[in-house]
Amino acid sequence: MSERAEALARRFAAVNAAFIDFIAAIPEVRWGQTVGDGELRSVGMVAQHVAFSYTWLPQRYGPIAAGQPLPPLSTDEANAVNATVAEEAAAMTQAAVVEVLRTAGATATAWIGGLGDAQLDRTGVYLAAYPAHTVEDWIKGGFLGHPPAHLQAIRKVLER
Question: Does the domain at residues 3-158 carry the CATH identifier 1.10.357.10?
Answer without folding.
Answer: no
